[in-house]
Amino acid sequence: DIFIPVVENAGSEPVSKVLLAFPNIQAKNLAAIRAFGTEGKVKGLSSVLPIEVVEPSGVPPELTFFSASLHKPLQKGKILHLDVLTVFTHFLQPFPEEITQADSQLVVFQDSSHYLSPYPVKVQTLSIRLPGGRVESYTKYGNTKLVDSELKYGPYEDVPPFSYNPIIVHFENNNPFAVAKELIREIEISHWGNVQITEHYNIVHGGARLKGEFSRLDYQSRPYARGVSSFRHLIARLPARAHSIYYRDEIGNISTSHLWSDSKKTQLEIEPRFPLFGGWQTTFTIGYGLPLQDFVFSADGKRFLNITFGSPMEEILIEKLIVKVVLPEGSKDIDVSAPFPTNQWQEVKYSHLDIAGRPVLVLEKPDVIPEHNLHFQVYYKFNNISLLIEPMMLITGFFLLFVACIAYMHTDMSISKNSPSYLAKLQWDEVQATVQQIQGIFHQCLAVHDKLETSLHDLSRTGDAKSCKAARKAADAQFKELAKELKPLLLSVQSSPQSYQIWPKLDDLVAKERELQDKLMARHATVVDSVEKKQRGQDIENRISSQQQKIAALRQEVESLLEYLSEI
Amino acid sequence: MVCSWGGYTFIINLIPMHVLLCIVTGRYSSRLYVAYAPLVVLGTLLAALVPVVGFNAVLTSEHFASFLVFIILHVVALVYYIKGLLTPRLFKVAMTFVLTVGLALCLAVVAILAALVASSPTKGWSGRSLSLLDPTYASKYIPIIASVSEHQPPTWPSYFMAINVLAFLVPAGIISCFLPLSDASSFLVLYLVTSVYFSGVMVRLMLVLAPAVCILSGIALSEAFNVLTRSMKFQRPISDDTLPTAGDSTPGSSSTATITTSTKNANIKKEKMGTISKERSSKKSRKETELVGSSPVRPEKEEKLCVLPSEASAMGILFLIMLCGLYVIHCVWAAAEAYSAPSIVLTSRSHDGLHVYDDFRESYAWLRHNTEVDDKVASWWDYGYQTTAMANRTVIVDNNTWNNTHIATVGTAMSSPEKGAWEIFNSLDVKYVLVVFGGLIGYPSDDINKFLWMVRIGGGEFPHIKEQDYLRDGNYRVDAQGTPTMLNCLMYKLCYYRFAETDGKGFDRARRYEIGRKHFKLTHFEEVFTTQHWMVRIYKLKPQKNRVRGKLKLKLKSSSKTSLMRKGAGKKNPWQ
């Protein structure tokens, strides 16, 4: 994170390009370079200049050249103000490389006090702003000044091209060296109204490694003195309407996080499970949902996603960032526009109920810094009808299942129609049906019995023997009718080969019922007779008591037989 | 089931017991044979495929019962077969002949078996089973089984907590099973009785008890509902029905009927049981007759009697529904509070809200991300599976206790002085030692409180660890009265390293006293991580060269590391 403002002037001929040179060692770690040009003396509106890597002939191979193209060629004698912003990663080397818990972290900065330029330089100064704290040592030249935490070299005048004057600054730097070895951001678009973002971090403390013991006692009692080089928490700035935020790792939810939100932003402060010392690493996942309408728009019949590229974390260097944009199933004509070059390819992701899979656009970029946190766009075509495919699939699936069930219940699945078991089953069904009919008849009989009983009861109350007789007659007629009905049914049961189990019971039942009928009628007759003869109640009791018991027993038997049949 | 749990021995003994019961009570049928014989054969074959069981499936006494019953079953089947072939007289002759020969053979086989079984010290039973049969066995001989809290006998509150209302319904269920004792219901009763006994021996066998209790109380409930709803349904027609027959004879009999119902009204509870059983019996007997298909159904006079007044039955139904509702509430509460609260994340409620102690996962996450993949971690065995799963590191001992020599080794190391412990750990290729310490926040189930088991288990295998050395007046103490051995052992040192500096006194909140030895240095271990509340402390073994002195120094420096290790292990191995 070194900031180099450069002001250049022009030569004799109109030029349209300015070359910027860096040593290969530095260029390797160059994360971002941006140039702003302003023509004329007055500070006006500066415009961003496009920059590309070039390889001019006749220059040392140890240098990498970038060329900034001007918007219009610079005329002879005119002056151009050019501000170049470069961001390097891994520029500061921790020295010593291993420190104990109590030590603070010292880093070394190496560069040249002369600006490495392919052009002659008239006047040049270099100022280095340090983060404050102790400065162990720095290279001293004639005009070097250290004021507060700013180190100044120069001014140097009339420096020839490609002059190099190494300097080394060794200073204390306890800023968190949070480095994400790898960050996978998955942006999943659901047209049901949600953009789900999942970020898998693998964070390491990139500073000087911890050597020796880690003592929680020291860390807790004097956190600033002991453990100054460590960091405890990271802050993520999420978009304002983020919801369903979670923070977890492989072994479950991590409970140490805080969330603040207002109308402009949502701020998530996450604390890894343990404080990170030099060389320690941890992994975690954060995820959140965003409302669809804030990030997906449509234009010219196409939809596009417009979302930031980098991580929402502050002050973090990402060594390898992989952004995966998972588009809904059925998206077509996928196109991306990113503000910087990235590696791109497409994948397919299968989620629940997917048939063709969801197209995934993958963007990969090494060395991502907060300056890269720009918006990028993914254009695609998507038909809203496709949304209904999955619910319809479920509905048809269940529908077919039920139809299949119904069909199964209604079809005869037996393989052979002539097999004995199948025939037996058919016959058994027949027998069951007839037995049910027979049961109905017997129940009718029983109801008739009850009627007889009630007529007797009435008799004992009213003494109306005539009606009682009439009732008996009616019952007799009914019995006969029922017996008639019963006969063919009994015959059919008897003839069936499947009835061997039931037949004895049924036979028994018929006999018992017949007996019961006879007994009932006989009793009825005696009671009516005696009432007609005006006998005393006691005598009647005595006469029928034996019958009474038999009837009760018979009735019990008949009922239990009937119940047995009904259980079959 | 053999794959998942050693508790399968319960099943393979319960089923033979049931089969035996059926045979003895004369309920042998071909169905029983078909059900049991393939189970034994196939079950044994399949069980033998499980690596930890292997040939134990035919060798140990736990499996003996099933084979014995298998043989008996075959003999009985043969007897029944012959019975069908021969006339009764011939059968008697054959019976006497076979009995004499068979008895002689059986005696011989039994004698051989007895001799074989008696030759092994534990009579062929594994320690676990013995501790079940004799609840005092484990505490006498196998400290590793006794050390686990879930192997302790349960308390009455724990029964009530686990089964709640069901405890009252189970007796009713037993009664309804008993009156017509069928094959199925006899199995249930047998299952319940045995599982009650086993759950009384060990808390964790409550798992075995639970299904039995559920089934039986389900039977009780369904019978109760059956009776109550039926009596409500038939209230009207039956009163109509009884009137004519009664009114026919005298009004007196009907009044006695009302009296009986009123007496029923007085003690509904008791009556309910009675009616349940009656109802049950009628059903059961009918089923049996159906199965056998022999005698005609006997009339049952009681059937009409089991009618309760409709008000009482409505009340009863409401009461039962309420009971069930309360039980559901209790179950949800128990599942939320007692069974799902993870013991790995501890919480405490204070006036300013919930405080979370997530130290275990903190340490496991640290191990996972900041140690080498093939580093080995030693800790007491309770944390073995957790470390394996959460930290993704190899552990020396874990919760698998089939073999306890390695657990005893770690116990020995923990109770040895630092140097001896270092040697043991180094020979096991251990890089990190993890201890759980609750002294700072007052977490009682930490390693110091478990230390007595480390000493006992370690001492059980390696006699140079003597429990008396650690005991002061029969107690393990780590305060000023602690024995020098105790205050010098590795566990003490790892737990209390620099602990006194936190408050200046070294007050242990878990044990509520000041520790005995406050300021000391570690020579063979270094602290690499301690969690936020000090619940887990991880130490790293210092490299070898630190312990080499004097003359050896030059020689050893030049030799390679592996030879060093071998030397170190071979020179003074405390447990060989």
TrEMBL record, chain A:
<comment type="function">
    <text>Subunit of the oligosaccharyl transferase (OST) complex that catalyzes the initial transfer of a defined glycan (Glc(3)Man(9)GlcNAc(2) in eukaryotes) from the lipid carrier dolichol-pyrophosphate to an asparagine residue within an Asn-X-Ser/Thr consensus motif in nascent polypeptide chains, the first step in protein N-glycosylation. N-glycosylation occurs cotranslationally and the complex associates with the Sec61 complex at the channel-forming translocon complex that mediates protein translocation across the endoplasmic reticulum (ER). All subunits are required for a maximal enzyme activity.</text>
</comment>
<keyword id="KW-0472">Membrane</keyword>
<keyword id="KW-0732">Signal</keyword>
<dbReference type="InterPro" id="IPR007676">
    <property type="entry name" value="Ribophorin_I"/>
</dbReference>
<comment type="pathway">
    <text>Protein modification; protein glycosylation.</text>
</comment>
<dbReference type="GO" id="GO:0018279">
    <property type="term" value="P:protein N-linked glycosylation via asparagine"/>
</dbReference>
<comment type="subunit">
    <text>Component of the oligosaccharyltransferase (OST) complex.</text>
</comment>
<feature type="coiled-coil region">
    <location>
        <begin position="537"/>
        <end position="564"/>
    </location>
</feature>
<dbReference type="Pfam" id="PF04597">
    <property type="entry name" value="Ribophorin_I"/>
</dbReference>
<keyword id="KW-0256">Endoplasmic reticulum</keyword>
<keyword id="KW-0175">Coiled coil</keyword>
<dbReference type="GO" id="GO:0008250">
    <property type="term" value="C:oligosaccharyltransferase complex"/>
</dbReference>
<keyword id="KW-1133">Transmembrane helix</keyword>
<keyword id="KW-0812">Transmembrane</keyword>
<protein>
    <recommendedName>
        <fullName>Dolichyl-diphosphooligosaccharide--protein glycosyltransferase subunit 1</fullName>
    </recommendedName>
</protein>
<feature type="transmembrane region" description="Helical">
    <location>
        <begin position="387"/>
        <end position="409"/>
    </location>
</feature>
<comment type="similarity">
    <text>Belongs to the OST1 family.</text>
</comment>
UniProtKB/TrEMBL annotation, chain B:
<feature type="domain" description="Oligosaccharyl transferase STT3 N-terminal">
    <location>
        <begin position="1"/>
        <end position="216"/>
    </location>
</feature>
<dbReference type="InterPro" id="IPR048999">
    <property type="entry name" value="STT3-PglB_core"/>
</dbReference>
<feature type="transmembrane region" description="Helical">
    <location>
        <begin position="186"/>
        <end position="203"/>
    </location>
</feature>
<comment type="function">
    <text>Catalytic subunit of the oligosaccharyl transferase (OST) complex that catalyzes the initial transfer of a defined glycan (Glc(3)Man(9)GlcNAc(2) in eukaryotes) from the lipid carrier dolichol-pyrophosphate to an asparagine residue within an Asn-X-Ser/Thr consensus motif in nascent polypeptide chains, the first step in protein N-glycosylation. N-glycosylation occurs cotranslationally and the complex associates with the Sec61 complex at the channel-forming translocon complex that mediates protein translocation across the endoplasmic reticulum (ER).</text>
</comment>
<dbReference type="GO" id="GO:0005789">
    <property type="term" value="C:endoplasmic reticulum membrane"/>
</dbReference>
<comment type="pathway">
    <text>Protein modification; protein glycosylation.</text>
</comment>
<keyword id="KW-0464">Manganese</keyword>
<keyword id="KW-0812">Transmembrane</keyword>
<feature type="compositionally biased region" description="Low complexity">
    <location>
        <begin position="249"/>
        <end position="263"/>
    </location>
</feature>
<dbReference type="Pfam" id="PF21436">
    <property type="entry name" value="STT3-PglB_core"/>
</dbReference>
<keyword id="KW-0460">Magnesium</keyword>
<keyword id="KW-1133">Transmembrane helix</keyword>
<dbReference type="Pfam" id="PF02516">
    <property type="entry name" value="STT3"/>
</dbReference>
<dbReference type="InterPro" id="IPR048307">
    <property type="entry name" value="STT3_N"/>
</dbReference>
<keyword id="KW-0256">Endoplasmic reticulum</keyword>
<feature type="region of interest" description="Disordered">
    <location>
        <begin position="239"/>
        <end position="296"/>
    </location>
</feature>
<protein>
    <recommendedName>
        <fullName>dolichyl-diphosphooligosaccharide--protein glycotransferase</fullName>
        <ecNumber>2.4.99.18</ecNumber>
    </recommendedName>
</protein>
<feature type="transmembrane region" description="Helical">
    <location>
        <begin position="33"/>
        <end position="58"/>
    </location>
</feature>
<feature type="transmembrane region" description="Helical">
    <location>
        <begin position="6"/>
        <end position="26"/>
    </location>
</feature>
<keyword id="KW-0328">Glycosyltransferase</keyword>
<dbReference type="GO" id="GO:0004579">
    <property type="term" value="F:dolichyl-diphosphooligosaccharide-protein glycotransferase activity"/>
</dbReference>
<comment type="similarity">
    <text>Belongs to the STT3 family.</text>
</comment>
